[in-house]
Amino acid sequence: MIIKNLMKKSIVSVVLVLNSFFLFAQTNEEKMIKEIYKSSLTNSKCYSWLDHLSNQIGSRLSGSASAEKAVQYTRAQMETLGFDRVYLQEVMVPKWMRGEKETAYILDNKSKTNVPICALGGSIATSKSGLIAEVIEVQSLEELAALGTDKIKGKIVFYNRPMDNEQIESFHAYSGAVDQRYDGAKEASKFGAVGTIVRSMNLRLDDFPHTGAQSYGDIPKSQYIPTAAISTNGAELLSKKLKSNSKLKFYFKQSCEQFDDVLSHNVVGEIKGTEHPDKIMVVGGHLDSWDLADGSHDDGAGVVQSMEVVNIFKNLGYKPKNTIRVVLFMNEENGLRGGKKYEELSLANNENHIFALESDSGGFSPRGFSLECDDAQFDKIASFTKVFEPYLIHSFVKGHSGSDIGPLTSKNIVKAGLKPDSQRYFDYHHAANDKFDAVDKRELELGAATMASLMYLIDQNGIDTKQ
Amino acid sequence: MIIKNLMKKSIVSVVLVLNSFFLFAQTNEEKMIKEIYKSSLTNSKCYSWLDHLSNQIGSRLSGSASAEKAVQYTRAQMETLGFDRVYLQEVMVPKWMRGEKETAYILDNKSKTNVPICALGGSIATSKSGLIAEVIEVQSLEELAALGTDKIKGKIVFYNRPMDNEQIESFHAYSGAVDQRYDGAKEASKFGAVGTIVRSMNLRLDDFPHTGAQSYGDIPKSQYIPTAAISTNGAELLSKKLKSNSKLKFYFKQSCEQFDDVLSHNVVGEIKGTEHPDKIMVVGGHLDSWDLADGSHDDGAGVVQSMEVVNIFKNLGYKPKNTIRVVLFMNEENGLRGGKKYEELSLANNENHIFALESDSGGFSPRGFSLECDDAQFDKIASFTKVFEPYLIHSFVKGHSGSDIGPLTSKNIVKAGLKPDSQRYFDYHHAANDKFDAVDKRELELGAATMASLMYLIDQNGIDTKQ
């Protein structure tokens, strides 16, 4: 009896000790996360950094002078944040320039109607006098192929499949439509088209044309054809007019040009880990943007949120156990050269990345994370759900993390993307209205706090489930 | 053995039948909810209704001609939606008018700085030449009381406690600050103040003054003093100037006036339930708005979402088991007369309301519901979580549902408020920028679908856990 009671007592004690340890750990983590959100909502720099990036520097297309200004500005700001080291990584990037503002009109019998277009990134120019031709509307690359050379030759192909409004997540609607923009010119050229016009990747009807990357793939340069995006309202109008006059003509003129690659930079800030300096956790976004606006959502927001993660840690005196790197990647939009260069240097240095987090889905209210990892790692991260609940972070799903961290290949690395509310993202994406005033200060700050919280939880708890 | 086996078989069969019944039910509900979201995102009328309400009718303060236009417009639209009956409920409402645009300036020695203000709803006017006096800044009603008559008499009291940015939900920050607006004039008058200026209920710094209800309570009319809101930037400036010159003066002029009550209306549309016509489920928002803007978020969004619930049911051919009423309440903003009248008539008719849902927190991305009910009812609604997850509806919490449904007293009634993302709500609330272009079409439609889904699930599954 005595022994049994003693054993019972011991077990009770162990349970109590374990329980209080657990409670203690929980409480400390909960406290820290509360402090993280408080710091971000009351004492952050991210909004004023974004103000500067957007309103003082402006659009930051790879190879532009303003992209380099952004490199110097963020480097200088990072140097105030108590990193052990802030440095640049040299990377050659493509340089494409839009040139003069594009013009376009529909010529229906003798009536001209101007419509808003913009050249797609990487497109060639039209001739100086512009390009005019009959139009053939298609809903897909498959429909294009089915029509074949007979129907396509000499014409402008008009891709008009809308993003699917039934999708709940706007990124799914984007994935389902963007092949028209990326591959449209290359495929149409194979059937003798003289140009392509693509309905903007936008879920709403408005007058903004949305640019974005396109690729001629490996077709010969002589077969490159000019390609542009048309606003959704413009696309609706063109389609309507084609229904009553299939012989109408479309005119457009653009003077964009591809130049030789130029030298640019990733910006990196590093804090050495106190316990595992060889284990690296990356948090980042991309410095470059398209040229039509400030790129405040894409991806000014991700840049300043990543910097804010370290600003929060500094304000709270938190010393990470693992090495933390803020990486501001160059050239996500039209080449991914920054992401590839970062991985190339990481491999050369035999580095071990355990975690990478990217914010490149806009500065909207954070909802959760999209994770690339195995099931055990997913379960570990999903176990943080309760801690995140008071901050309305509910959505932990497997899926695409971020383009810039895509090239990372460390064994067992977990990659995560911040998942903000996606409904308004494609109202602004790659268009002239992606400006500072489209970003809400609190939504931006909540995103930064959510990123800092996950970085903190993984720094504290580890993520390598195979140890 | 045989009997045993037979029994075993029977049990297996029962389990199989129950399982397939459960699966069948689940699958049908899931299918229906998918159709609800699809209908709202691809075939809804709510955005064009809101366009009309905001851009053709405009602001709808109780007692105004435009409020009555909104009554007639929504009644006419509801008559196209296949209700069994659409009717008006007469209700007497207060009529307060702003009059001329207010003016205000800080007089610091001889330098005048204009600042944006607006009279608070229900305030009296200043004299025709305006009011000028020294200012005393306080952070709370408690600080006011501690200062007392000696310090307050003859002065303008300036309430400047900001909404608390640490709060994750902006409504919590609002609750923590709004006593200054609602009770500020009444309390300051008791200590001999000649007027009050209240920092706008706004989490960000900008130039919009935000109006809203205030009350003189039961102090004698002779002691009423004029009260106005100042923009957050204006409040910061006034506070800064007071620090260097506590003797500066503040001038403001407003010509608002309270008139006799006038006749107005709630708009009601009713579909008789096929199985339980005596059990009533209400869905609604409020038709009136403040006068400074279109009131697109507050509460045009809630009005058109409530109507859309029935439009969705009509499009999908869904016949509710319980009686469904869309109620567009009048006078939520400065009297709640519509909500009280609805309940008064409901009591007179001995009606039984089992459920009421209000949308009055803006047309932003829906996040969940705030519920007033007992634990068993809460558990029943929380059991729908899985069905809502694909639509990113995660947040089911106990809390305030809606003001207009507040007066309802049916036994065992469950009250719910749609909970949209709250971060941007107070950027617009009661201010001149609460306009149509501040509402995103998809966010509005997702809100309507979320409301329709909960109405459907409760209609199907019931909610009275005490039967």
Automatic annotation (TrEMBL), chains A, B:
It holds the Pfam family Peptidase_M28. It is found in: Endoplasmic reticulum; Golgi apparatus; Lysosome; Secreted. GO terms for cellular component: extracellular region; lysosome. It comes from the Bacteria. One of its GO terms (molecular function) is aminopeptidase activity. Residues 1-25 form the signal peptide. Keywords: Aminopeptidase, Carboxypeptidase, Endoplasmic reticulum, Glycoprotein, Golgi apparatus, Hydrolase, Lysosome, Metal-binding, Metalloprotease, Protease, Secreted, Signal, Zinc, Zymogen. InterPro entries: CPQ (IPR039866), Peptidase_M28 (IPR007484). Residues 266-453 form the Peptidase M28 domain. The keyword Zinc applies. GO terms for biological process: proteolysis. SUPFAM superfamilies: Zn-dependent exopeptidases. Homodimer. The monomeric form is inactive while the homodimer is active. This is Carboxypeptidase Q. It comes from Flavobacterium frigoris (strain PS1). The lineage of its organism: Bacteria, Pseudomonadati, Bacteroidota, Flavobacteriia, Flavobacteriales.
